[in-house]
Amino acid sequence: MTQTHSKVVEGKAAPRGKYPHLKQAGDFLFVSGTSARRADNTIAGVDVDSRGTARLDIRVQTRAVIENIRDILQSAGAQLRDVVEISTYLVNMDDFAGYNEVYGEFFDYDGPARTTVAVHQLPHPDLLIEIRAIAYKPLE
User: In sequence order, what DSSP letters do the residues of 42-110 get, joined into one string?
Assistant: First the structure.
């Protein structure tokens, strides 16, 4: 019988619905779609000028998303090196180069299989990226 366990990770942005940050099923860890949203609901990579105009930075958001995924995995005893698949959702494919640059700081050719797609929008207009991940961490 496969063991399953769901977890909402303390100190991370609360899920925007009734789902966990992390679902463990046997040796696999499934990380729900993760954004650059912080626990206080602010969003990394958003700079608002004195006129109220927001400038969004895909590099800062990508780094924040991957670090959020890292923290979620660590809560279950796993690391980024345990990730076997990543699915990335970008609002604008013009951001692909910046996303890819930061992604390469965390992963190399021996890293996870990856799919990147463009989507019409994400749950907040300041979000440029969302990533979901699957990790393999054998139970001990």
Answer: -BTTEEE-TTS-EEE-HHHHHHHHHHHHHHHHHTTT--GGGEEEEEEEES-GGGHHHHHHHHHHH--TT
Are 134 and 28 in contact by the 8 Å Cβ rule? The answer is yes
| CA torsion angle 51 37 134 107 (round to 10) | 60
CB 132 within 8 A of CB 29: no
**For 8-36, what is each residue's pLDDT tens digit?**
999 999 999 999 999 999 999 999 999 99
On whether the CB atoms of residues 25 and 116 are closer than 8 A, the answer is: no
pTM: 0.95
**Token code pair at residue 10:** 């303390």
Phi, psi of 99 (to 5 degrees): -60, -50
pLDDT per residue as tens digits for the range 36-70: 999 999 999 999 999 999 999 999 999 999 999 99
Q: Are strands 129-136 and 83-90 parallel, antiparallel or unpaired?
A: antiparallel
